[in-house]
Amino acid sequence: MLFADPAHDVLSVSELNRLARQLLEEGVPPAWISGEISNLTLAASGHAYFSLKDASAQLRCVMFRNRVAALGLKLREGLQVELKGQVTLYEARGDFQINVETLRTAGLGRLFEAFERLKARLAAEGLFATERKRPLPAHPRAIGIVTSPAAAALRDVVTTLRRRMPSIPVVLYPAPVQGDGAAARLAEAVAAANRRNEVDVLIVCRGGGSIEDLWAFNEEVLARAVAVSRLPVISGVGHETDFTICDFVADQRAPTPTAAAELVSPNREQLLLNTEMGRRRLERAWARLFTDKTQQLDYLARRLVHPREKLQRQTERLHSLEARLKERLTTLLEARRWAVERAAHRLERQRPDVAVRYAALGHAADRMARGVHQLIHRHQGKIERLDATLAALNPEAVLNRGYAIVQKRDGTPVKSPTQLRHGEAVTLRLAEGDAGARIDLAPGQQTELPF
């Protein structure tokens, strides 16, 4: 029995929820629970709200800001975790939930593992290669949209396209964006757009959601349909933080459906502004060209004259040149005549007097002859004096006075008796010839020879 007093058998909602919370918190101790994170919401307050699920059930979880900050782990959709928390009841809404105290990774979630396997396989096949991606048309004739007619993303895309370029037709290729068979229906819509050939570019889009909600855009059938599409495909699935296989295969990814519409459509206001600016530049260029051509026409008109007038002008110019040439020749001849006259005058002044020069030359010859005669006479006297001196010093003159030169047999002149020995034969050189003699020394004059 909950109450002993029958008067209290009727409970209010608040009382019942409070009682249930007390029973849960007192009766179920904190425990470790494993599961996969889904429907994750990170609030502006810093709290984290998500569902923890397995193959057959799920429960709500809340993790408060201080515990999220101390976690050191980034929460994300599909993450397989093990958490410990208090089982409780949120009284205001009567929601059964777990207040998470701590959390740890238990490995990649089932959906996330499937996502990574398919991503790796398609990347190995080259479906994500940059070189196979095509540029989006700058001015498409028509734009195709593959999404659900009831999707909020469709309204956002159409509103953006109408605002930016209302003249471009929009064609919807309807297909469900979640649930069983959604991926195959989306792939068929992409193939239908290619078969009909009525648009130039294709937007595949839907709004945000959990990884389960977006799973149709992670299936292989849609990825291969986008890869073989003849039309350029832009993927605008979920929010900016959401990534799907379709994003990697598409020719371009947009963070949101609205951004996809902005990427694929030209901006009407910007085009009008560019057109107006181009028109003004063209007007200025045309006005400048018209002014230039008008001035050129005026210049050519001034140059355009009648042939008779042109011939007359040329005749007048020829006469003027002829007069100038005659005047120039006359001036030149006059200048040359004056130059010749000045040169003749200078030559006349500088021409020598031949008679005076002859007389000067005669005087110079007389002076030269007298000088030579005096020089010869002076040198002859000097020679005669030298001859007398030489004659006085001549040895033959001494011999003529009766002297003789005594020489040994080898021609050595004898200057001292010490050079002679008794009985030595010598030669006497006389004025009129030579004679032989033998030395006869007195006994006191004998000299001992060194040998």
From TrEMBL:
Q: Which UniProt keywords apply?
A: Cytoplasm, Exonuclease, Hydrolase, Nuclease
- EC number(s) reported in the record: 3.1.11.6
Q: Does the keyword Nuclease apply?
A: yes
Cellular-component GO terms for this entry: cytoplasm; exodeoxyribonuclease VII complex
Q: Does the keyword Hydrolase apply?
A: yes
Entry similarity comment: Belongs to the XseA family.
What does the record note on quaternary structure?
Answer: Heterooligomer composed of large and small subunits.
Q: What is this protein called?
A: Exodeoxyribonuclease 7 large subunit
Q: Which organism is it from?
A: Gulbenkiania indica
Which gene does this sequence derive from? xseA
